[in-house]
Design a protein that fits this description.
By secondary structure, this protein is an alpha/beta fold. The chain has 17 helices and 17 strands. Strand 7, helix 7 and strand 8 form a beta-alpha-beta unit.
């Protein structure tokens, strides 16, 4: 019988040495001597039993430290036997039939921008089609959502594109229909927009219905206009700020409470100046800004324009680890990078674990495309359809089989990996065009994920060293898990 492995990784900051222990899901500070010799002690991948004699070179200090940790429920064998969300299939089926909380409608494929880093810009078929959602598709999607959200709390509806405001009439018709036909639902409404099509009448309606808006702005005009250009290759910054000004004029209180921003930090731009822009400009001061890098998939952006310089990487790293009271600290950037670490479950590892960073399909979001196809999210390219609104709606069997297959294929590797409780890989990372990544392709994917997590552990520990209260912003915050 194989002995269950002890799963851990070692890392260090400039001043301290640490062990991340998968069994307890804790980060353990340790001495340099323990840190340097831990692999020799735990090379057998089993606890220090009384009859276990470590290699002669291992000191009594290290043996004692490991035994003490094991006495506290740390560095113990990880006997992962299965991956699943719920105890049984019936629970999974019940959840996706009655607890779906969010409907996302792809109201149009069209966009009036041609951003150089956007996957849609590189999707020739999509750019040729430029279709918008017909009302019968929207109506059937709403009916399916009403049925499948019967026991969900905090229901919400969002709109997706393309640029959603190209289909503003559809958005308004959907909202007005829900408000009239399902007044007890009272969902929250939201979408992400480039902001350029916000007219006075659009602004008034969004404010009246209290839409939660995320507006994409990539910093000062020269940084923004470098890659966020119109389909006529013109700059878009001034048009976006004009739209934001109309929102303020429509309802300043609404703007303050319901508008946030997304900024793509692009290689070759002055990142410090971009951060300062959001801190100082009156349209952005006090609002949440989510900073992100250019997504690596779906475009040839990095091949055309290069990657981040060492100085940029260093600045991004400092921004994510700055003390909480630093004037250069950007809370939203920290939140995205460290949320899952900050609120991780510090309980012993169970024999059954959830499938990596996967969500329960549809439970978090049900996306319906202009053609009526149903997906679990907007990640491009679209893959893994879970049904079609016009052809029977959600295919429950397909959802169950997807979860089962992911768990079956992942368990042999994940059950032996120290990152099993921190991994963010999901279905979309592991499947392309219905084909599962395996062998060397899967190994590269997993190694990349482990490297990313290891780097985040270093930055997380460095942040806490610099300011123990740096992540108090997460007090009371929980990550949605299957329930």
């Amino acid at each position: 019988m194989d002995t269950a492995p002890i799963l851990y990784t070692r890392f260090r900051t400039s001043s301290k040495h640490y062990i991340y222990d998968a069994y307890s899901n804790q980060i353990l500070a340790t001495s340099q001597r323990v840190w340097e010799n831990l692999d020799r002690v735990l090379g057998s991948q089993r606890p220090l039993e009384s009859d276990f004699v470590p290699d002669a070179g291992v000191t009594a200090e290290v043996r004692s430290a490991v035994r003490s940790a094991q006495g506290l429920g740390q560095l113990l064998p990880c006997d992962v036997r299965s991956m699943r969300f719920y105890d049984n299939e019936a629970t999974l089926r019940d959840r996706i039939r009655r607890h779906v909380s969010h409907l996302a409608l792809e109201v149009t494929e069209a966009c009036n921008f041609s951003c150089r880093y956007c996957p849609h810009t590189f999707d020739d078929g999509r750019m040729v089609r430029r279709k918008s959602m017909a009302w019968p598709t929207a109506e059937k999607a709403i009916a399916s959502f009403v049925e499948r959200s019967s026991e969900a709390s905090g229901r919400s509806v969002s709109f997706w594109g393309g640029e959603p405001l190209i289909a503003f009439r559809t958005i308004r018709r959907v909202v007005d229909f829900i408000e009239a036909a399902h007044p007890s639902m009272r969902p929250a409404y939201s979408f992400t927009t480039n902001g350029s099509l916000i007219t006075q009448s659009v602004a008034a309606y969004l404010a009246r219905m209290r839409f939660d808006l995320t507006v994409s702005v990539d910093g000062p005009e020269d940084a923004h206009d470098r890659f966020r250009i119109s389909r006529k290759t013109q700059g878009t910054h001034r048009g976006v700020l004009a739209g934001l000004t109309r929102l303020v004029e429509a309802d300043a209180e609404y703007y303050r409470k319901h508008v946030q921003f997304n900024c793509v930090l692009t290689p070759g731009t002055d990142l410090a100046r971009t951060f300062a822009f959001f801190d100082a400009h009156p349209l952005f001061t006090g609002h949440r800004v989510r900073f992100s890098r250019v997504a690596p998939d779906g475009t040839t952006f990095y091949q055309q324009y290069g990657t981040y310089s060492e100085d940029q990487e260093d600045l991004l790293r400092k921004q994510s680890t700055a003390p909480s009271q630093s004037p250069d600290a950007h809370t939203a950037y920290k939140r995205r990078r460290f949320l899952n670490l900050a609120v991780r479950d510090r309980t012993p590892l169970r024999a059954t674990v959830p499938p990596n960073g996967c969500c329960v399909p549809l439970l978090k979001k049900m996306l319906v495309t202009v053609a009526g196809d149903i997906y679990m999210c907007e990640r491009m390219p679209y893959d893994l359809p879970l049904g079609n609104i016009h052809r029977g709606g959600v295919d429950d069997d397909r959802v169950v089989s997807l979860v089962d297959e992911y768990a079956r294929r992942s368990l042999p590797d994940c059950g032996k990996c120290w990152a099993v409780r921190l991994c963010g890989l999901c279905y979309r990372d592991c499947i392309r065009n219905g084909e599962w990544k395996h062998g060397a392709a899967r190994d590269r994917l997993c190694e990349s994920q482990r490297a990313s997590i290891a780097a985040r552990l270093v930055d997380y520990a460095a942040m806490i060293e610099a300011d123990p209260a740096a992540l108090d912003i997460f007090d009371g915050v929980t990550v949605n898990r299957p329930a």
